[in-house]
Design brief:
heterodimer, A: globular, B: mainly alpha, 11 helices
């Protein structure tokens, strides 16, 4: 872990890995989409509309996974003062936010033909919507503090407080939902998923993960360069020849 | 302990005397409750059904109002630097700030809510539950809000940013608080919701001061 603490070395390695990762992302997403759209059978009840699931479900997984990554990076930054951990957390947030939005939008598109409505206040939908606002708050906090080290310190604490709060929010929303009943109409007691449907789902999930890592590295490199540029502009570092 | 009391008392006095203090929070809270029927229509049934949620949304918004004055003026005039040097641990400084903020916002709102309850045609048995739920829940709102205000000391133009940070984290309070009052109106037992509300409040009172102290410490230089 500590040997990657040198931003220069990190940038060098990230640069080397990026083309390979981009290739892997493209390969996995194209294969995944092909499997999802042409190979997987249509659902016996929902027909072709069920294929939205292959885009939707991995996006929902990623929305939580990336917040967890942000929380872990923030904890690492907080405890070990690892210089790249804050950069990783910052670079993750917009990617996670977009995956959360993707999950909400595709869910809504699926809900219209299946449930007959764009939105229901189902427990899971509500939790994901709140998660979206937590991402927004985190991104906003970074954007309103000009000085990057100060912004990083504040953002760390926000990410950790958010991570402590997510289970509480999840619990309260679940409790609220069972109290208000109404979601039972929309329960999907379908058959357990078959392998012809599981394979594209897993390939898509792998594709999303590699996509995340690829763009995380690219965004982190950008962030490192931007900070360097900032110190040069402020006259704290000589202009490189 | 003496320092702690002195700090709470100082902040309460500022809250009572300075603009944007307790009176403003109370007036804002009352105004939301008055605006609701004008938007929803005067039908007693509708107001009665929406009442618990409206009261709690108003409480969430009204406690936001005073957050900027919790730490921002202290950060600007250097009081915060003196507080860092004081023998009182920063966690307790944060707790004092939370206590003072609660006494000048949440506490006042809790006392005011029963008086406003008839405006939304709330059932009489639900009114003590409304007051109790606000008394139990608003300390948690102050705790989370103060932690966010501590983060906000680095922000130059902070006001609305605080709202975006705080409101999603306050959702559990809204859910449990409003449910307790709704349950009381439906002649059901509100105990479960009140217990969860208290739990959320207690967790916030532990996490809030720690997070606020960490935020104040990190901005030391």
């Amino acid at each position: 872990m500590q040997q990657f603490a040198n931003p220069q070395r990190f940038v060098r390695i990230a640069k080397m890995l990026t083309p390979w990762l981009l290739g892997a992302t493209a390969l996995l997403l194209v294969t995944g989409l092909y499997l999802a759209l042409f190979v997987a059978p249509p659902d016996y009840q929902q027909g072709d509309a069920a294929r939205i699931m292959y885009v939707h479900v991995p996006a929902a997984w990623m929305s939580l996974f990336i917040y967890a990554c942000m929380a872990v990076s923030s904890a690492v930054a907080f405890i070990w003062k690892h210089p790249l951990a804050d950069v990783a957390a910052k670079a993750s947030a917009p990617i996670g936010c977009v995956f959360t939005a993707l999950a909400l939008i595709t869910g809504s598109l699926w809900g219209q033909p299946m449930w007959g409505t764009w939105w229901v206040w189902d427990a899971r939908l509500t939790s994901v919507l709140i998660l979206f606002f937590l991402y927004l708050g985190y991104i906003v906090l970074w954007s309103v503090i000009d000085e990057p080290t100060r912004a990083a310190r504040a953002a760390r604490i926000l990410a950790l407080v958010g991570a402590i709060n997510i289970p509480i929010i999840k619990f309260s929303v679940d409790w609220w939902n069972t109290l208000h009943q109404g979601s039972s109409v929309f329960r999907m007691d379908g058959p357990t998923i078959t392998s012809s449907m599981l394979a594209p789902l897993l390939v898509m999930a792998a594709g999303y993960n590699v996509f995340y890592v690829t763009f995380l590295l690219i965004r982190m490199r950008t962030e490192v360069s931007q900070r360097r540029l900032r110190t040069i502009r402020l006259g704290l570092e000589p202009v490189p020849a | 302990m003496k320092t702690f009391r002195a700090l709470v008392w100082r902040d309460i006095l500022i809250g009572m005397r300075a603009s944007g203090g307790a009176a403003l929070a109370a007036a804002f809270f009352a105004l939301i409750i008055v605006l609701a029927p004008l938007g929803l229509g005067p039908d007693a049934g509708t107001l009665r059904a929406a009442g618990p949620g409206l009261f709690w949304i108003a409480a969430l918004l009204a406690t936001l109002l005073g957050l900027e004055r919790v730490l921002q003026p202290d950060a600007e005039d250097g009081t915060l630097d003196l507080l860092r040097l004081s023998p009182l641990p920063l966690e307790l400084v944060a707790l004092a700030k939370i206590a003072a903020h609660w006494l000048t916002s949440g506490f006042i709102i809790s006392l005011l809510a029963p008086l406003l309850a008839p405006l939304l045609s709330l059932d009489t048995p639900a009114i003590p539950i409304l007051a109790a739920s606000l008394l139990l829940g608003t300390p948690g709102l102050s705790a989370i809000g103060t932690a966010a205000a501590a983060l906000g000391t680095s922000v130059q133009r902070g006001g609305m940013v605080l709202a975006i940070l705080v409101l999603p984290l306050n959702i559990p309070f809204l859910i449990f608080g409003a449910s307790a009052v709704s349950a009381a109106q439906a002649n059901e037992d509100p105990t479960q919701a009140l217990i969860f509300l208290t739990a959320a409040s207690l967790i916030a009172l532990v996490v809030g001061p720690i997070a606020a102290a960490a935020a104040l410490r990190l901005n030391e230089d």
